């Protein structure tokens, strides 16, 4: 079923996110027949495009970044007729009347009142200004049809996040606010719920009795990709852990939902955030490691160090790598550490979750037969490939007893012929349908900030002395290895 008539305004319409992600996502939804019967998209920006040049600009983005290359030209013609450009200075109050007029005009054309969606794909410092000018418009009082989509980062720290939430709450109802975390739109991340709660097989062992520890790795090979300016005020902890990684951790650790209502899922997830042990400032050095890449070589190519990137301070103390050990204080997870790490310019693009089960209680095989517990693990791979693999111990064929690990693999590529949608497609469709399940509620955002604040503060108090401390193409600083090796464990990478 298609969503109801929708009018989508994209602030930052001439920006990078729209070019790379939003427009290709909307176009793919159109190709797949998921866009509403009646819809329009209005890109809002300062640059002087007319409709034609704007459409050409977006089409270039689609040619480069869309997952579909075929069917483009014919369907693009139809789609692009629905796309217009509005040059507007979003800092001027009086300009916002134009938006109200467009809504009225479309309402007449559609013969019904559409969903009105404001997507804020702009730099974080512009968000409060836009929100406070949008809020007073009459159309925003319609809590059923008018929605605002806010991109991460949600604030720069706990205080600014609370302030932003307060501002949003003063203008909109919580159910109108869609805080996007694109990781939650990824197929494999959503599949964690199916794996855990649509099978009776895993859940009985998904706890401290059978699980030794859990790891989440989100490693990237790219550097800061020209975003030095933004990244200097962010760093890996804010950019990846506060949001994506903690959200994924919640999916892995949450209790079973009773139904799939948005608030039921979000309640279960926020329970996890509340149960994560807050790391005291003086314990940070034992539980968190930060890193920054230096210059070097990656796959035969010379790459600059972080401090040599554009718009980055020569003495920058910004973290481009983080590893943290979390504990969840509840009955299910007591004493099961969650090790997470993320970094730029690492050896591989690898986003994986590893559930490491405990060793067999009585290992009757001769010690020389094999390593005892490593193989018992489930790895959910989000990137580069989408798959789930169960690694277990098997007897090698032949005389005598020699054991070695084998993988039972469910791969999306082999199991399905259909192409999986991009995260932004799923999330944009959800916004049009009014389904907030995969979006962050304000209490989740605040709870996640509360967890990382002591780490941020402790790092702010103490400048890093050893930066840069890892080479491009490595798996991060040595201290990150030590963090997990101290517990007699090691980081898992894909074979
Ligand atoms: C974004 C971060 O939210 O996620 C980027 O701002 C990061 O720094 C990106 O590169 C990673 O997303 P993905 O989907 O490529 O894992």
TrEMBL record:
Keyword Magnesium belongs to the record: no
Key words of the record: Carbohydrate metabolism, Glucose metabolism, NADP, Oxidoreductase
Residues where substrate binds: 182, 186, 220, 239, 344, 349
GO cellular component term, pick one: cytosol
Domain Glucose-6-phosphate dehydrogenase C-terminal: 193-491
Pathway: Carbohydrate degradation; pentose phosphate pathway; D-ribulose 5-phosphate from D-glucose 6-phosphate (oxidative stage): step 1/3
Catalytic residues of the enzyme: 244
Biological processes, Gene Ontology terms: glucose metabolic process; pentose-phosphate shunt, oxidative branch
Family from the record: Belongs to the glucose-6-phosphate dehydrogenase family.
Function: Catalyzes the oxidation of glucose 6-phosphate to 6-phosphogluconolactone.
Protein name: Glucose-6-phosphate 1-dehydrogenase
Species assigned in the record: Flavihumibacter petaseus NBRC 106054
High-level lineage: Bacteria, Pseudomonadati, Bacteroidota, Chitinophagia, Chitinophagales
